[in-house]
Structures are given as structure tokens and as C-alpha cells.
Amino acid sequence: MKLRLFVAGLGVVVSNGYAEEALQMAAYSPQVADEVLVTATRSPVALKDSIASASVITRDDIEKSQARDLYQVLRSLAGLQIRRNGSRGSATNVTMRGAGASGTLVLVDGINIESATLGETNLESISLDQVDRIEVVRGPKSSLYGSSAMGGVIQIFTRANKKDGVTYTLGRGSNNTVDTSISANGSSDSSQLNVTASHVVSDGIDVQSRDDEVAGSAAYDDDGYHRTNLSLNLEQALTEQISANLLFSGSRSQADHDSFYASNAGNTPYLEQETRLYSAALKYEREHYSTKLQYGKLEDASDNYEGDGTADVDRFGTTREHGFWENTLTLSPGVQLNFGTDYTHEEIEAPTAYRQTRRDNFGGYLNTQLELGLLSLTAGVRHDDNEQFGSKMTGDFAVGVHVTEDVTVSASVGTAYKTPSFNDLYYPDVGCCVGNPDLQPEEVESYELGVDAYQEWGSTSLRVYRSDIENKIDWVFVTQYIPLQVDEADVKGLELQVGTELFDTMIAASATYEVVENAATGEDLERQPRQRIALDVDRAFGRTELGFSVYAQNKHYEGEGEGRITLPGYGDVALRAAHRINEQVTVRARIDNLFDNDYVEIYGYNTEGRFVMVFFDYTPR
User: Fold this and answer.
1) Residues 546 and 576: beta-carbon distance below 8 Å
2) Distance between CA 64 and CA 79 in Å, rounded?
3) What is the mean pLDDT of each run of 10 residues along the chain (621 residues)?
4) How far is CA 596 from the centre of its chain?
5) What does DSSP assign to residue 28?
6) DSSP string covering 413-476
7) Most buried one in 4, 13, 33, 585, CB count within 10 A?
């Protein structure tokens, strides 16, 4: 194996491709129509041939955007709402089509990385440096993946590149932020390996504002953070038909945070988190049949230190084991079956005993895809046997009519569910809050109409949908906080995505109009702005590339009843530039929140003001 690895320093992973060709794969450009999509059916299909509402973000897209994290990458997509408790380094989650963070499934190379205690995924633990591509599929997909896939599925694929070489990057920016990484690729005729390491450290900002109301100026402090990531991805061809894959991904971080009850500046609590993902897969492929066996194990732990000089610490941990066998069989041209089975084991560790600390789930699925002239059909069904909740059946059906070679009109219906988390069910009674063992799984039934066009001038996707969510879980205050199933939610939405190339300029835009209401009261559910828009514009001038991004959303609400708070809408602008000095060196700069707007995403948490980062990328030749 040829592998150049020069460890004289660390640098953020970015290839040296900030030239014109990097612009040719913008998120909705004409070329993206041929991008392979796996997540929609658990088998590869060209994006333009899929009926599902889907987006593919390539490595070129990530590098072109100069995004610092998944928060910045994903919030430009229609149908997604990204939320963060403060600045970078704070807990970050994503919700799709009003289903909440717990109703959005996030996979890394096929493995579910959801916390069993929280019931959702913290995106902040994932470094963009290790990401090769991201697939986003909107709408219910429990018929393929089981629990959590109510609003949609986001699958992140880690880097595996046959192009040998090493890239170093050093970045420096606002709040004394230093962002560095190194990525090395090596390959032979039968194998390829990527190793990526990154480290970021920053003084941060004052994350919470609510503690200031209690402690006054004594609580005004910057909450720093640091995070280290390491990933390894090895692919090995054993024979012409058999291949193996080994994956490791690890993250370790520490982030200061504020307490609402802070009373003096000496109390500086902080959170340490560690995540490790192991995966091994074996795949067999023939012309009309392929099969894959994969086993993955996720371990995550968090230690919450009081920070008042004592050794008091709360430790929470999750172990999730996930194994699956998936198969794709082509019976004839235009007729394909996908079927398989999977097993999930969850186990938790906590400082106070939970009534239950482990559970298992067995599932099996069958999905078919038919091409009948002008018609495309997909249908799927899945059965899950959960140790706590018993049997669960879900399914979906979609039909697409190819009006022309480039335009497809589609309609779909699907059902999905989400099992309550261990915190929802069994959180110990510690005075402030307690779990509820009587909870049942959340359920959704969704309907969708769509039009997709992939043409020479660009691409367009328009989707209109409605979802009815039952047994929705909300933590409400009675005599203490407790999760109750008091709400049924009605979700109605419209999503528009457009991409084109005009005068050598790449333009990608998205717009979302979404109403997420309490079915009984007609009130909007909290943290659900009705309108969101995003615009990305990029152009290359020889060795120099310039671009900007715009994001805006309207007002949203926090709380319910008399304590309900209205948070105003906001918008921000980001500028970016890159210049390739020579074949080995590129310098980049990005300015976020250009106009230094003061806005709030989540009540009680501050957001970053104007933020500037400058990077130097070095790729030895």
C-alpha cells in the first residue's frame, strides 16, 4: 500500500480542489442528478431515479461551503430545522418535518448513533473532517429502519478515498479559536485506507443568558470548549465478489456551560463527552444479487462536573449494538427486491438507578421497486419486535409518473414510529423531574405529493406534505417535570429546492413553509418557525473562488400557555473566499454572521456574533 504520512504538524481536512471544477457539484446542480443515493431503499440508485424527497451533499459541496460543522451544512436544506444550545461546542440536534429531534434518525455508515438516554443524536460530536458525503431522505422510513425514522433519515458516510496523499490544515479565528487536522489516504489494487485526525479549541462565548438573570455580572463568562476526533476507514477487496470494511470513529470533548442556578463566578460547571463507534462489514456482490452483513457498536459517555471545587460528577453512558443483514435481488430489468433483518441492543449507565437499563429489538423488512414504463413504484413493509413494547408494523407506498424524461410527478404515503427513550420512561425521581413508564411509542402517518425536474439548466424539487403525529411526548411541568402524551400534532408543509448555473455562477436555494400545530389547541408547537429560506451563491475566477450564504427564518415560540414566549425571526449572511496559491497551498477565509446580528434560537441561550476564520491548507506533491 502506498501511503504518504508526514506528521510534522496538524492541519482541517480539505482537499486542494478550490478551483472551478469544485463548483460543478453544487447541491442542486445538473450533475448531482447522477449522484448515487443509498438511504432511500438501502440499495444504490441514481438520485434522479429516486421517488423519495432526497438531497445528497458531496465532499466537494462541504469543501466549497467552508462550513465548520454539520450545523452550517444542514441548515441550508429544505425541511430541516437545526438547533444548537449556544455556540459551536454546544449540544446540536436536527428535526425533520416537525417530528422533533427524537423523530429524526441519524446513521453513520449504516449504524444508528442515537443516544439511548436522550433519544436523539448530538451532531456536535461529529467532525466534518471525517465526512465524505451526506444523504438526507425526508418522510417516514420506519419501513426500512424501524424506530426514530418518523421525519426522515440522515446518513453520514465517512471518508474513503483512492487518491493517495495527505492534507494538513491550520485554522485560526475569533474567540481564540484554533482548528487543525490531518487526513491521509493510501491505496493499493485491492484496498484503500483513510485516517483523519482533528482538534479544535476555543474560548467560546457566554453560552447561557438565563444564569445572568439570577447571578448578574458574576455569571458573565466565556464558556470554552475543545474537541478531538479520530477516524479510520479501511476497505479491502478479498476476491472479485467479496469485500470487507472496518471503521473506527472516536470523539472526546470538554465544554464549559452555565447553570441557571449559578450564584457566583467561581461555579464553572463543564461537561466531558466521549464517543466511540466500531463497525465491521462483509459484502458479497454478483450481477443480480448482493448481500451485506454488518455489526456496529456505539459507546458514548458524558460526565457532568459541578465545577465548584468539589469532585461531584454525574456520569451517563450508552452502549448500542446494531447488527444487520441486508440483501438486494434484481429479478428482471425494472424489478428489484430489498430485504433483510436487524438486531439492536441498548444498555445504559447512570449515577442514579433506572428501573430498566437494557432492551432489545428485532426487525425484518421487505421493499420492492418496480419500473413499469412511465411508472415507478416502491412499496415496503417492516415488522419490529421490541422487548418493551411488543410488535410493531410499518409500511409505505410511493408512485412516480415520468411526465417527460426529466420530470417526475410523485405521490406517497407512509407510517413510522418512535419508541420512548430511557429518560422518557425511567428517569429517576430526583426532585426536579421524573420519567413516565406508561408512555407508548409516538406514531406518524404521512402523505406527500412531489414534482422533481433534473434538466440541463439545473434542478428543481417541490414537495407538499401532511403528517399526523399521535402520542407525541412532551416534558411538561405538573408538580415537577414529567413526560406526558398530551399532544397530537398536525404537520403541513411545502419544500422547494432549486439549483442552477447562471453566467458561470452556481446558485442553490431552498425554502420551507411548515406549520406544526397542537391538534387540540391549534397553537404552533415550540421551536418550530413556519418559514425558512436559504441561498448559496459561488463563482470561481481562475485560482480564486468567492461565495456567500444567506439564511433566514421567521418567529417561533417557547413554552405553552401563559408562560409562552415569542422569539423574533432573524437572518444572517456568511461570506467565503479561497485562493489557490499553487498546487500545494490554498488559503481560505469565512465570515459568519457578517452583520453581527443579535438573535436567539433557543430561549436562554446566546448565539455567536460575527465570527471570522482563516485556514491554510497544505497538500504535499
Assistant:
1) yes
2) 22
3) 32 34 41 82 91 92 90 94 86 92 94 91 91 95 96 93 86 96 92 95 84 51 90 95 96 81 60 93 96 96 72 75 96 95 93 89 97 95 95 97 94 97 91 92 97 91 96 88 88 96 93 94 91 96 96 91 88 96 96 94 90 96 84
4) 26
5) T
6) EEEEEEPPPHHHHH----SSB---TT---EEEEEEEEEEEEEETTEEEEEEEEEEEEEEEEEEE
7) 13
Contact 283, 292 (CB under 8 A): yes
Asked if residues 454 and 33 have their Cβ atoms less than 8 Å apart, the reply is yes
Local structure of 526: helix, strand or coil: coil
42: alpha, beta or left? (left if phi > 0; alpha if psi -120 to 50): left
Class of residue 333 by CB neighbours under 10 A (exposed 0-12, middle 13-18, buried 19+): exposed
Provide CB contacts within 8 A for 332, sequence distance 6+: none
- The SS3 assignment for 510 reads strand
What Cα–Cα distance (Å) separates residue 422 from each residue in 72, 219, 323, 338? 30, 33, 21, 32
DSSP per residue, 236-276: EE-SSSEEEEEEEEEEEEEEE---TT--STT---EEEEEEE
- Determine the pLDDT at residue 218: 46
Beta bridge partners of 509: 498, 535
Three-state DSSP class for residue 539: strand
Q: What pLDDT sits at residue 310?
A: 54
- Compute CA distances 6 → 10, 33, 167, 189, whole Å: 10, 37, 9, 23
Q: Among 396, 378, 379, 445, which residue's Cα sits nearest to residue 417?
A: 445
Separation CA 296–CA 71 (nearest Å):
25
380 residue type, one letter:
G
Q: What is the pLDDT of residue 162?
A: 66
Q: Which of 513, 527, 621, 514 is nearest to 566 (CA)?
A: 527
Separation in Å, CA 22 to CA 64, 443, 576: 7, 42, 14
Integer CA distances (angstroms), 262 to 219, 221, 400, 430, in order:
7, 12, 57, 19
**Residue 71 DSSP SS3:** helix
By the 8 A CB rule, do 294 and 110 touch? yes
Q: Can you give the pLDDT at residue 461?
A: 95
Measured distance CA(61)–CA(110) in Å, rounded: 21
- Which SS3 state, helix, strand or coil, does residue 362 take? strand
pLDDT at 592: 96
User: Rounded CA gap, 371 and 41, in Å?
Assistant: 14
Q: Are 416 and 394 in contact (CB under 8 A)?
A: yes
Determine the distance from the C-alpha atom of residue 527 to the mean position of all C-alpha atoms in its chain, rounded to a whole number: 18
Q: Position of cell 421497486?
A: 369
DSSP-derived secondary structure letter, 21: G
Residues 6+ apart with CB under 8 A from 181: 10, 11, 12, 13, 127, 129, 168, 169, 196, 197, 198, 199
For 223, the grid coordinates are: 464558556
The 3 state secondary structure assigned to 123-188 is: HHHCCHHHEEEEEEEECCCHHHHCCCCCCEEEEEEECCCCCCEEEEEEEEECCCEEEEEEEEEEEC
Helices within 365-427 (DSSP H only): 422-426
Paired strand residues for 324: 294, 342
